[in-house]
């Protein structure tokens, strides 16, 4: 098939999980009101942060590795079409089949057709962000196919009728007691005396999944990387459930975003050092599974690769914004983000939460379809400091905010309250006398915040600012007055 995916287009509306039903501020308010959620998130993210910091400190060349990862990704994106064509050729040469999907609808149709061709009404799944992104489980259910998640955290989310809240740990918002209740309520045949001891919970999940593994004829996976050099696909995981899916079924279907390709094994070596340290705080992943085409008598007899665009070429067309496609989905930025730690992933409305989701989702859907996400950040810069491929997320967030403001300005002839306020500020600051007068007038605000020293509530339209943050109480003396008094 051809690599011509047509003109760049955004991920379609009404399918998949890239757009939330509510804006981030509205959803975040509900999350902030849930004290148990905040406790769960705070404990989990602090634990992962500490583990990551320890193993990263062991590498004297960590910053050199980050720079190498950034350079490899940038070079790969610059010649993405060539690498994808080579990947396709190598997969095909080794007995696999490659399918190109312009968007979520095409990808779902391709996978549904492939599953139907096997005659199976049941599939087992490896944890996959790409399949969550396109809403594959829902598409298969509509076609009468039962989909079983096998990653423990994804299983918890599935049984609980929930959605993932984290890239690496989808059930990070659940504690052990909640998981036990879900298993007792939803897992057939579970021991009523089940406790919330981690080992007992894992044993219950293992027993439940074992029969699914043994009878499954079709498996569906994502891919952490695709190596163009040999047509190899790779999944890293911590449990081994993915390996069961990748080896036992007769048919294996992989859905991979086109940005996941790496040119060679030498390039992959860099990422296999960056990814486990940044994600799980481990020196290497417990399970690294690689498959290359079809080998008679060993593993699946049919191997399919679905290469997914779904807004990626539209992102690639932006020379600056394309940096978001460098992401290797380690989730390090989520674990250090003060906003994510307090709201969790559901508030973002996308399968990609946290700082990276705030820049990636709006570019896959078009900024106006996710206009609130670029503002879901304090711009503290912690995400850039931990990103293993040095994505400058804060700069991308500011750029997307500017695009949203420009889009609103072009769409409306009536200036917004913010635009009026900024114009008034510019006029005031353009003249020293006007600015000095404004400084003196600001002292009127001292009547507010006398007890706390902060202005927590201001009258409209300034109330829009204090609704989400405090402002310092104006000083009793302006800088100009202090300067005149001290320096004459």
From TrEMBL:
UniProt keyword annotation of Cell inner membrane present: no
Q: Which UniProt keywords apply?
A: 4Fe-4S, Electron transport, Iron, Iron-sulfur, Metal-binding, Repeat, Transport
User: Where in the numbering of this chain does the Lactate utilization protein B C-terminal domain appear?
Assistant: 410-486
Q: Please report the stretch or stretches of sequence annotated as the 4Fe-4S ferredoxin-type domain.
A: 324-391
- Biological processes, Gene Ontology terms: lactate metabolic process
> Which GO molecular function annotations are given, in alphabetical order?
4 iron, 4 sulfur cluster binding; metal ion binding
Q: Where is the LUD domain?
A: 84-294
Query: Transmembrane stretches, by residue range?
Result: none
Which PANTHER family does the UniProt record give? LACTATE UTILIZATION PROTEIN B
**Designated name of the protein:** Iron-sulfur cluster binding protein
User: Which organism does this sequence originate in?
Assistant: Pseudonocardia dioxanivorans (strain ATCC 55486 / DSM 44775 / JCM 13855 / CB1190)
């Amino acid at each position: 098939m051809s690599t011509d995916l047509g003109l760049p287009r955004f991920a379609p509306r009404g399918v998949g999980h890239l757009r939330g039903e509510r804006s981030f501020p509205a959803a975040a308010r509900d999350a902030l009101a849930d004290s148990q959620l905040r406790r769960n998130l705070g404990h989990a993210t602090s634990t992962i942060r500490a583990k990551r910091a320890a193993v990263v400190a062991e590498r004297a060349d960590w910053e050199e590795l980050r720079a190498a990862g950034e350079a490899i990704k940038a070079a790969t994106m610059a010649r993405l079409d060539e690498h994808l064509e080579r990947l396709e050729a190598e997969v095909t040469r080794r007995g696999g089949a490659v399918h190109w999907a312009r968007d979520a609808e095409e990808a779902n149709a391709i996978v549904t057709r492939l599953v139907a061709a096997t005659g199976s009404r049941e599939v087992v799944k490896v944890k996959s962000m790409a399949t969550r992104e396109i809403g594959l489980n829902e598409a298969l259910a509509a076609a009468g196919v039962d989909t079983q998640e096998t990653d423990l955290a994804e299983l918890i989310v599935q049984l609980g009728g929930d959605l993932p809240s984290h890239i690496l740990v989808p059930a990070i918002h659940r504690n052990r007691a909640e998981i036990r209740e879900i298993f007792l309520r939803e897992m057939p045949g579970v021991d009523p005396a089940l406790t919330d001891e981690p080992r007992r919970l894992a044993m219950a999940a293992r027993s439940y999944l074992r029969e699914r593994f043994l009878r499954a004829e079709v498996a569906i996976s994502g891919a952490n990387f695709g190596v163009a050099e040999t047509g190899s696909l790779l999944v890293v995981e911590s449990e081994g459930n993915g390996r069961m899916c990748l080896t036992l079924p007769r048919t294996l279907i992989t859905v991979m975003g086109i940005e996941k390709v790496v040119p060679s094994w030498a390039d992959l070596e860099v990422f296999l050092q960056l990814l486990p340290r940044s994600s799980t705080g481990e020196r290497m992943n417990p399970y690294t599974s690689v498959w290359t085409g079809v080998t008679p008598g060993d593993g699946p007899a049919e191997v399919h690769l679905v290469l997914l665009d779904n807004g990626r070429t539209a992102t690639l067309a932006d020379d600056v914004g394309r940096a978001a496609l460098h992401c290797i989905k380690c989730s390090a930025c989520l674990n250090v983000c003060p906003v994510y730690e307090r709201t969790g992933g559901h508030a973002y409305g996308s399968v990609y939460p946290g700082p990276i989701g705030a820049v990636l989702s709006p570019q896959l859907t078009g900024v106006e379809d996710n206009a609130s996400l670029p503002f879901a950040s304090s711009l503290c810069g912690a995400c850039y400091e931990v990103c293993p491929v040095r994505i400058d997320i804060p700069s991308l967030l500011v750029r997307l905010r500017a695009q949203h403001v420009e889009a609103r300005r072009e769409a409306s002839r009536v200036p917004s309250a913010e635009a009026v306020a900024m114009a008034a500020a510019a006029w005031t600051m353009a003249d020293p006398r006007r600015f000095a007068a404004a400084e003196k007038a600001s002292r009127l605000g001292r009547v507010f915040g006398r007890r706390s020293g902060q202005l927590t509530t201001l009258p409209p339209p300034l109330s829009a600012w204090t609704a989400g943050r405090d402002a310092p109480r104006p000083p009793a003396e302006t800088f100009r007055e202090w300067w005149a008094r001290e320096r004459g």
